[in-house]
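Predict the 3D structure for this chain.
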Amino acid sequence: MVNQVRIVITLILLAYLPLSCSVENNTTKPTIAETISISSQNLSLPTINKKIRYLALGDSYTIGESVCTTCRFPEQLVKELQNLNLQNTISVDIIARTGWTTLDLQTAIKNQNPASDYDFVTLLIGVNNQYRKQPFTVYEKEFKELVAQAIVLTNNDIKNLIVISIPDYAFTPFGTRSGNATTISQEIATYNEYARKYCEENKITFIKITDITQQGLKDTALVANDGLHPSAKAYTLFVSRIIAKAVDALKD
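Done. Predicted structure below.
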């Protein structure tokens, strides 16, 4: 009887071992923090004999609502690029404001009429279209128009445009209190998938940062004090994913 019990226990353990190995393998995937160090390795920037000009287009996520001026991602990106080669001079212009939709950004670009010789441009827009419950067709049309405007501002060099995915504010205290977090997340995913697919089809760089913001309820340090927008820490994580593509743009 004892031997039979031992045999049964052994069989159970043998059946369980493959499952244990599978789980262990899954947990070896890089965490967000580990991905940062991986993405930032071995970057270098040549000396460029002119001022590098960067234009950031967007809304509250670009202007850095509720964080300090140097904490927002465009400023952090400039600092990291500067650190790669202290011989270079880099400046950033920002056309962004909290609450802007795609149409608001289009109008601001037309009104401000920026120069068309930026070395690279970032575009992050769309959350306020979703928040205001505008028809998705509005975003489809105006996003494509904004991309075309942004390409012109890179001196018509499509390689120098970087589109950034929309953060998911469902994973913030504000999103939780809305009672509509699931719908928010689903709609943001729809916007991002459209932008990703459009960029892929047109060979435009698309950087996904949404998953970083989806850790906001687990890691509250990723959310600013207003309970809605990304924190300086979150923007640092954004930069860790953007910087390699910015370097590529500047090397061309």
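The mean pLDDT is 88.
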